[in-house]
Amino acid sequence: MELTEIRKKLKKELDKDRYEHTKGVMYTAGCLAMAYEYPIEKAMLAGLLHDCAKCIPNDEKISICRENHVIISNVELENPYLLHAKAGAILAEKKYEVTDPLILHAIRVHTTGEPDMNTLDKIIYIADYIEPKRDKAPHLEYIRKIAFEDLDHCMAEILYDTLHFLKGKKGSIDPTTELAYQFYKRFEE
Ligand code: DGI
Ligand code: FE
Ligand code: FE
Ligand code: FE
């Protein structure tokens, strides 16, 4: 499926703010790809689709995962929005006809991260956090700057802030988020 056709479909699937965010992530991922000499179209496609399951009801996210043999943890059952990443990877493949395993993987891990991510995983995780419409995270200015200097250092900063935020609001933490931080904290400065 062509990028323009996917965009048309997504515009109907997502609410207005989510569609704007999606475009922001798509172009930011393209910019990061330029900075790190990564294939630009691939990064843009992953960015475009990363939240494709965000606006479907939680029970549907759960059933999409179950139907596709994804094992759902208790933390995910308590916070079903986490499943928009895993359900999104499934929809990207089945509904938007993406076959590239790297794109599907980047979508799957974009919310929690995971240890030792590949370049595309990091580009999407970071683009999601820094795209121009995002404005609530702390010291975004600094994080936006280091995003274009060192992907691993940037991952460490974002994961640190995310865990800090989650601990503050007593949301249950997915062990994968914790493992991702344990891996990336070596790149903190
Ligand atoms: O879908 P987006 O809002 O664009 O971004 P996202 O998919 O990265 O989701 C970000 C949210 O996910 C943010 O509020 C932090 C939350 N999150 C990340 N890791 C965890 C988590 N929430 C819980 N409960 N547990 C986690 O481990
Ligand atoms: Fe998301
Ligand atoms: Fe994210
Ligand atoms: Fe997002």
CATH superfamily: Hypothetical protein af1432
Shape: globular
Number of strands: 0
Whole-number tally of structural domains = 1
- Number of helical segments with 4 or more residues: 11
Largest sheet: none
- Bin the strand percentage: under 5%
- Mean pLDDT across the residues is 97
Distance between the termini: 42 Å
Kindly provide the radius of gyration, computed on alpha-carbon positions and rounded to a whole number of angstroms.
16 Å
The CATH top-level class label: Mainly Alpha
The CATH architecture term is: Orthogonal Bundle
Which structural class do you get from the secondary structure elements?
Answer: mainly alpha
Q: Give the low-pLDDT segments.
A: none
What ligand species are in this complex? 2'-deoxyguanosine-5'-diphosphate, fe (iii) ion
Kindly identify the CATH topology.
Hypothetical protein af1432
Helix content: 55-70%
The SSE string, one letter per element, is: HHHHHHHHHHH
